[in-house]
Design goal:
About 35% of the residues lie in helices and about 20% in strands. By secondary structure, the chain is of the alpha/beta class. It has a single domain, classed as Rossmann fold.
Length: about 240
């Protein structure tokens, strides 16, 4: 049984990253639903690259018809891994997201080029099975969401979901973007993933279209939800024509 209602349009599956949660896609979801696109905002477990990718892969088995996968930040790693071996996955959209090759880790990609200041903003909480990472609330706005209002960033800081520390050091498998066309959007002032790394990953993946937003933060897709929706719609249209 399909999770969503039958539609002639592809289902858009949105995967958030670390230090965020499903409601971070609120503006994107509203735009998609207004245009008749079925959508699912996945509650990414944030427990590790393999675990989270398998979680997504299992969920996608219950989505009928064509699928456009959209990932933010660490969620890009998960759509890369969880989007493989499913012929219904027709497009990948990376929003301020990692797009690794096999063997790369999120931590490696974030630190390979200068510019990330994430490490200085993190705090840890010991949990069963490991250590969870949070961004300190007082540093969240400037680090993660500088182009959102203080009020919006404040709520995001309080509702952020932590990621298991070991997830940042876990290697990715063979990525879906090797066989599935991809689109990229990111902010030029991203303080989590350096903009040079975004450009490198987009070029390496053969991005069909790359949108770099001047002044955009790591969560540029929140104030610029309309641009994210437009890019998703372009990806959906291109794959339906193919």
């Amino acid at each position: 049984m399909s999770i969503t209602q039958p539609s002639s349009k592809p289902t858009v599956v949105l995967v958030h990253g670390a230090f965020a949660e499903s409601s971070s896609w609120e503006g994107v979801i509203s735009g998609l639903l207004a245009d008749g696109y079925p959508a699912i905002a996945v509650a990414n477990p944030l427990r590790g690259v393999t675990f989270d990718s398998e979680y997504l892969r299992s969920l996608l088995k219950d989505v009928s018809g064509d699928i456009v996968l959209v990932g933010h930040s660490y969620g890009g790693t998960i759509i890369s891994g969880g989007g493989t071996d499913n012929p219904n996955v027709k497009a990948l959209v990376f929003v301020g997201a990692f797009a690794p090759v096999a063997g790369e880790t999120p931590g490696d990609l974030a630190g390979r080029m200068p510019g990330s200041t994430l490490g200085d903003t993190l705090t840890t909480v010991e949990v069963p099975g490991g250590t969870d990472l949070y961004i300190m609330q007082e540093k969240y706005h400037s680090q993660f969401a500088a182009d959102s209002s203080a009020e919006v960033a404040g709520v995001m800081a309080v509702t952020q979901r932590p990621i298991l520390q070991s997830a940042f050091g876990e290697a990715s498998g063979e990525p879906a973007w090797k066989t599935v066309p991809s689109w990229f959007l990111f902010g030029a002032e991203d303080r989590n993933i350096p903009v040079a790394m975004h450009r490198f990953m987009a070029e390496r993946a053969g991005s069909r279209k790359t949108v770099e937003l001047v002044g955009g933060s790591h969560t540029v897709g929140i104030p610029e939800a309309g641009q994210v929706v437009d890019l998703i719609k372009q990806a959906a249209a291109a794959t339906s024509q193919a």
